[in-house]
Design a protein that fits this description.
- The complex is a heterodimer.
- Chain A has one domain (36-311).
- Helix content of chain A is 28%, strand content 24%.
- Chain A is built from 7 helices and 12 strands.
- Chain A has helices spanning 4-18, 39-55, 156-159, 169-174, 179-197, 213-228, 235-246; strands spanning 88-96, 102-109, 116-122, 126-130, 134-138, 141-146, 252-258, 264-271, 277-282, 288-291, 294-301, 310-311.
- In chain A, a hairpin with a 5-residue loop joins strand 7 (252-258) and strand 8 (264-271).
- The longest helix of chain A is centred in the middle third of the chain and has 19 residues, at 179-197.
- The radius of gyration of chain A is 22 Å and the shape is globular.
- By secondary structure, chain B is mostly helical.
- Chain B has helices at 14-20, 22-33, 37-52, 59-91, 102-118, 122-133, 138-145, 149-173.
- In chain B, helix 2 (22-33) packs across helix 3 (37-52).
- The chains are: A alpha+beta, B mainly alpha.
- Chains A and B meet through helix 1 of A and helix 1, helix 2, helix 3, helix 4 and helix 5 of B.
């Protein structure tokens, strides 16, 4: 038997539904409504930019009085791009945010896939998308977990297989180095991503642009920014990724382009359909250093939350 | 003797079936996202179904499939607007209501219920809409949402408790 409240709820919902004005069903299958024609382009890229750009950012901030790698004791035997015993990955991103101020992310991550991590954010939020809770922004501060970016090893973000769109340390260690193979895999993942997102339970409806070469290239390029700032990216793979980017159709090369901190290198820019440029910059040693709105550097620290003991590049 | 012939009515084209569901789905989406986005949500779903042509063997399954698609897309839409919606809802104050006008009182009661339904967590709101607007059983609601019947029961219980408490609080204030 229904309670009074249940009756109220039923009547209220019918009341609201009854207020919805009758409108004819728009033509289906032929044309999309005005203004929606490019959504297949806009939505995935915008969403990915928000998620990847903030979640995987990382850049510079040196320790006070940092004198560089030569001053770090006891690390000379380590491979330059691999952690020595006891070391953890460290990355630091500085991003320009609206209003001109800068936000910073420092990330410490153990060398193993499921190891503990610590993230420190200053002046920015970490945007994450979770299956049930939607898009969340964490305020500035320090958070910890296991199996970055998951809170724990049982979280789906940890158990999901690694890929170019979900780069974890295990995937990066075993990923192919052949630029042609990488390019094909990126294309396959971009296509699968768009198919997933344009399914009935996805975010948007496919248009003529959704599966175009331009859109898929742009989507892949956007996700590559996440790969480039991922901890555990081996130097030889980083170089291969630069080759992939350099040969992306439509890529614009800008020599002597400065990142947010003024460090200069070769910039690769890919315009979206409105001409806005997505940019990545590599230094002369082929290390990713960010973009004009961001600076990035990676290295190693003696422990979670500790100042880095050496930096790469 | 002529062989018996099985005559079956021709299936209406898929696009016709989809067009028939336009307004019912728009109303459903309005209850879930409660804004002009409802039409976009439904059109996206119908376009996707027309394009992908899922293997659905009858109209009932098509309707259930569409309903699930609308809920999923509404949920995606809601994620993006939830913070703003809650903030705006928190600023909305109950109106003064002429006590003698029963119709207006009922309308105000509806608005109050709806304001509180809008503030429910997404899953609870979906359960409430499916159970009390679509009049689905607990099992049908569970199938539509892809969860267990127990989850539906628990969500409905929590939602009604929340609504009851908030309605009581509001009444106590007046």
């Amino acid at each position: 038997m229904s309670t009074e409240l249940e009756k109220d709820v039923t009547e209220a919902l019918r009341f609201r539904a009854g207020e919805v004005p009758e409108t004819p069903c728009p033509p289906l299958g032929a044309a999309t409504r005005p203004g929606a024609a490019r959504r297949g382009w806009l939505v995935p890229v915008a969403a990915a930019a928000a998620v990847v750009g903030l979640a995987a950012a990382a850049a510079v901030t040196f320790l006070p009085g940092d004198a560089g790698p030569a001053d770090a004791p006891g690390i000379t035997a380590a491979a330059p791009d691999r952690p020595a015993a006891g070391e953890v990955y460290y990355s630091h991103t500085k991003s320009q945010v609206e209003g001109g101020s800068a936000g910073e992310q420092e990330l410490w991550q153990g060398p193993g896939r499921a190891d503990a991590w610590q993230e420190k954010l200053v002046g920015m939020v970490h945007i994450s998308v979770r299956a049930d809770s939607g898009v969340n922004g964490s305020p500035s501060g320090t958070t910890e977990g296991e199996c970055w970016p998951a809170p724990s090893t049982t979280d789906a973000a940890c158990t999901a297989p690694g890929s170019w769109f979900n780069p974890n340390v295990d995937f990066l260690a075993s990923a192919p180095r052949d630029p042609a193979v990488i390019t094909q895999q990126l294309r396959d993942e971009a296509t699968a991503e768009e198919e997933r997102r344009t399914a009935p339970d996805g975010d948007f409806t496919a248009t003529a642009d959704t599966f175009s070469d331009e859109n898929l290239n742009y989507l892949a390029f956007n996700y590559l920014r996440s790969v480039l700032s991922a901890n555990g990216l081996p130097a030889d793979l980083e170089q291969a990724l630069e080759q992939v980017i350099a040969t992306t159709p439509g890529i614009q090369v800008a020599e002597n382009l400065a990142n947010l901190d003024g460090e200069r290198g070769t910039g690769y820019r890919l315009p979206d359909h409105e001409g806005a440029l997505l940019t990545v910059i590599f230094d002369k040693d082929h290390h990713y250093i960010g973009s004009p709105e961001e600076s990035f550097e990676r290295g190693f620290a003696p422990g979670l939350g500790q100042p880095p003991s050496r930096m790469i590049g | 003797m002529a062989a018996p012939v099985n005559l079956r009515p021709a299936e209406p084209p898929l696009v016709t079936l989809l067009e028939e569901q336009w307004m019912p789905l728009v109303r459903l989406a309005t209850l879930l996202v409660n804004d002009a986005d409802a039409r976009d949500v439904v059109q996206d779903c119908l376009e996707a179904v027309l394009r992908l042509r899922p293997d659905l063997d009858d109209r009932a399954h098509l309707v259930a499939y569409l309903r699930r698609a609308v809920i999923n897309r509404s949920r995606s839409r809601l994620r993006r607007q939830r913070t703003a919606t809650r903030y705006l809802a928190s600023l909305t104050r109950p109106r003064d209501v002429p006590s003698a006008e029963r119709e207006l009182l009922a309308a105000e009661r509806h608005r109050e219920v709806l304001r509180n339904v809008d503030l429910l967590p997404t899953r609870q709101r979906e359960v409430i809409v499916l159970r009390y607007y679509c009049e689905l059983s607990e099992a049908e609601t569970a199938a539509t949402l892809g969860v267990s019947t127990g989850t539906v029961k628990a969500a409905a219980h929590r939602a009604l408790n929340t609504l009851r408490r908030k309605m009581k609080d509001t009444n106590d204030e007046h």
